[in-house]
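Input chain follows. Return structure tokens only.
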Amino acid sequence: QDTDTNRAYPSELLDQVLNEARKLDYYTYLFLRLIYYTLRRPSELLKLQYKDVDLDRGTLIFNSKKTKTNKTLNSQLPAHLANELKQHVPTNAKPTDYFFGNIGRKLQNEYDKRLFAPIPTPFSHFQDKFKALQYRMKLPKGYTLYSFKHTGIVYAIEVMQWSDYDIISYT
């Protein structure tokens, strides 16, 4: 069901946005894909730390302090994404490093982003990158960062045949 905000992306537009995001910034591209695949809120993903990740099993663990629902939830990554992420894990990652971390600013408005770094990258950084993407692509009104979660939910219902109960239990 479409609304004026957080509309689900049609598959062709989803592919176009992700391709453009890849060109703009790898970490934004990864952030958007993780929202889509995990059905997690951006704020939950930004709280994720190295100790919450098991890439061998392709699992992300969102403990109750990191979720809006105050429940511990697990998300299963597709194998291709877990394998991609394994290539980017630094050998010196610490349990408390943030998945979407940074080591400070390179420029006034640009973070030196890393997977698993000690400082969390703020949501505003990804909002700004997405605004640039919206502008570049002249996206119609209603397509937002949260639209990636909604698109993932539509996919889970229509393709994977998830029930409303399945969606509620997972998210």
